[in-house]
Amino acid sequence: MLKKKEFSICFISFFFLFFFMLMNFTFLIYFIMNDMVIFLEWELVSFNSMSIIMSLLLDWMSFIFMMFVSLISSAVIYYSKSYMSSELNLNRFIILVLLFILSMILLIISPNIISILLGWDGLGLVSYCLVIYYQNMKSYNAGMLTALSNRIGDVFILMVIAWMVNYGSWSYIFYLNFMFNDYSMMMISLLIIIAAMTKSAQIPFSSWLPAAMAAPTPVSALVHSSTLVTAGVYLLIRFNSLLINTFFLKLLLLLSGLTMLMAGISANYEFDLKKIIALSTLSQLGLMMSILSMGLPDLSFFHLLTHAMFKALLFMCAGVIIHLMNDNQDIRMMGGLNLYVPLTSLCMNISNLALCGIPFLAGFYSKDLILEMVMMSNLNMLIFYLYYFSTGLTMFYTIRLLMYLMLNDYNLLCIYNLYDEDYVMLKSMFMLLFMSVIVGGMLSWLIFPFPYMIYLPLNLKLMVLYVSFLGGLMGYFISNMKIYSLNKFLLSYELSSFLSLMWFMPNLSTYGLNYYFLKLGQDLTKSIDMGWSELYSGQGIYLVMKKYSIFFNYLQMNNLKIYLFSFVLWMIFMFSFLIIVN
User: Fold this and answer.
1) Are 323 and 444 in the same domain?
2) Which of 36, 119, 130 is CA-nearest to residue 87?
3) Number of other residues whose CB lies within 10 A of the CB of residue 289
4) Does 402 lie in the same domain as 519?
5) Cβ contacts of residue 478 below 8 Å, gap of 6+?
6) Is 574 exposed, middle or buried (0-12, 13-18, 19+ CB in 10 A)?
7) What is the 3-state secondary structure (H, E, C) of 180-200?
8) Rounded CA gap, 5 and 2, in Å?
9) I want to staple 45 with a disulfide (CB 3.0 to 4.6 A). Which of 52, 187, 200, 566 is the partner?
10) Domain count of the fold of the chain
11) Inside any domain, residue 387
């Protein structure tokens, strides 16, 4: 049973966040109707000519993002009440999650690079605490990898702060419209792009995102939908007018396209349920970043919001399934879930279909629009193929996942009781299920003041459907092992190890880089800290003093004293005898 205090903190957090979401929704409608932006400045300290100012930017974008963050986090906290019910320190877990949300909200409403750093660093620090929440070796490694990868981004943000000393203020919002040809601003834009790539796990910083799956599932639902990984995309959306037509953005387009492809391929070789969903997040982040690189920040933001809903739901369903499967995450052990847990399967299937972009679910409105805009843009064929191949791969791994979970035979234990009656988890999942269905249409009315009408030839218009259908067919055949020769090639050891290990990304970007520095550190510790410096400082002096003290101790021992005393007495006796004789 939950302790009363911990039970109440769940409910208080849930109601507070839900109320905050409704409040943001009200403000959002008011701000969009009146085309308003509020910029608040609060002077904290003023000393001579120096003043430290806290500034807040409230516009439709920050309100809509805060609304989504608070809605998803309220559902996640309500879900945690049941999912984490056996946790002794549930109180601590909820407080960490609330700190995480607070950091994200600070980042959302900051037009100032200093306060952005506070939110940015807060996300990195609290995510480390949440990833190592289950304290074992795997969690510690994953936590360290997450923290160090994010630390690179923090360093680049600090460098941006140093470069912005060239201007009169750290509020980047003042410079967005007229500073894009300035050399300093070009350097700042490069640093911002690299910082955003670390937070949103683009190549070559991708290895931390699947590793962060060591965190509890409610945390994964929050981190991989609307908070940590979207922070980099959001930062670039805010900075977008500075970045347009720079060379760095073209480079980002290529890297994010490759990230999309790499994550899509790796997800097809993965058997860990949570890692498949994490790689799917990575693929969608690549999509957001690449469409942003093409100069369409509104579309990127639109996909960010629709993706947040169904991805949070997908992780919640995965959490329920993992609990039912005796804490086992291997999809080869699962199967036939639609027969035993119909409500959870319903949520899982709808969120998966929304991810694929099935018409009139949330993902369709943003993905279809993005792919049609790609078709209209004058980019080369490489980028075009990256987009469409990755879309096909999304369908591929989704159908594969559904085949393993829903249609294959149940493989865990011969007698096992599956139940679908955890109503606390189901309520929070149905809240997000409802949003996953309606949010695409709702947002397309809210965000775009006029509808995008895209006219294309019939074959190009239907290209998305062709690619999706082909990907789904491949997923079905591969799961059923129908095409033996193709499977033999695809599942050959060399190819599968290369593709399933994210193109050896962890080895190249993390372990490969870290190994030599850590080995050097170990050697230096052995030879200097525990070697020469010990010999010629503390330890050496201690040994010399010890040797002398043992010698003096020996001299002062009682038997030596008696020997010397008797020797002195004997000498006195001899001298007195000689004097008497003479």
Assistant:
1) yes
2) 130
3) 26
4) no
5) 268, 396, 400, 486, 487, 490
6) exposed
7) CCCHHHHHHHHHHHHHHHHHC
8) 8
9) 52
10) 3
11) yes
- The C-alpha atoms of residue 570 and residue 273 are separated, in whole angstroms, by 94
6 and 28 share one domain: yes
Residue 267 counted as domain residue: yes
**Tokens standing for 151?**
């630390």
Tell me the C-alpha distance between 150 and 119, whole Å. Answer: 13
Report the amino acid identity of residue 354: A
Residue with tokens 């990755």: 390
Nearest-angstrom CA–CA distance, 546 and 136: 42
- How far is the C-alpha of 505 from the C-alpha of 493, rounded, in Å? 18
What are the φ/ψ torsions at residue 188 (nearest 5 degrees)? -60, -40
Q: How far apart are CA 371 and CA 393, in angstroms?
A: 14
Beta-bridge mates of residue 47: 50
List of residues 6+ apart from 157 with CB closer than 8 A: 113, 116, 117, 120, 191, 195
Say what the pLDDT of residue 518 is. 81
Q: State both tokens at 364.
A: 């369709």
φ, ψ dihedrals at 176, nearest 5°: -60, -35
User: How far apart (Å, rounded) are the C-alpha atoms in residues 18 and 482?
Assistant: 48
Amino acid identity of residue 408, one-letter, is: N
Do 31 and 77 have their domain in common?
yes
Q: Which domain holds residue 473?
A: 244-500
CA distance 9 to 80: 11
The helix/strand/coil state of 153 is: helix
pLDDT along the chain (582 residues), means of 10: 61 90 92 89 80 86 93 92 84 90 92 89 90 88 87 91 82 77 83 91 87 88 86 90 82 92 88 90 93 90 92 92 87 85 91 90 89 87 90 91 86 74 86 90 84 83 87 83 58 67 73 78 85 80 88 72 81 89 79
Long-range contacts of 504-508 (CB under 8 A, 24+ apart): 505/203, 505/204, 505/206, 505/207, 505/262, 506/207, 506/211, 508/204
- Would you state the structure tokens that stand for residue 372, as one six-digit string? 């049609």
The answer to whether residues 117 and 50 belong to one domain is yes
Same domain, 443 and 528: no
In angstroms, rounded to a whole number, what is the distance separating the alpha carbons of residues 112 and 472?
Answer: 45
User: 225 — phi, psi (to 5°)?
Assistant: -110, -60
Q: Given 500, 529, 553, which residue is the final one in a domain?
A: 500
193 located within any domain: no
Tell whether 222 and 249 lie within a shared domain.
no
- Burial tier of 64 (Cβ tally within 10 Å: 0-12, 13-18, 19+): buried
Residue 172 lies in a domain: no
Residues 21 and 46 in one domain: yes
User: Hey, is 167 helix, strand or coil?
Assistant: coil
Q: Which of 288, 195, 287, 312 is nearest to 248 (CA)?
A: 195
- End residue of a domain, out of 500, 525, 540: 500
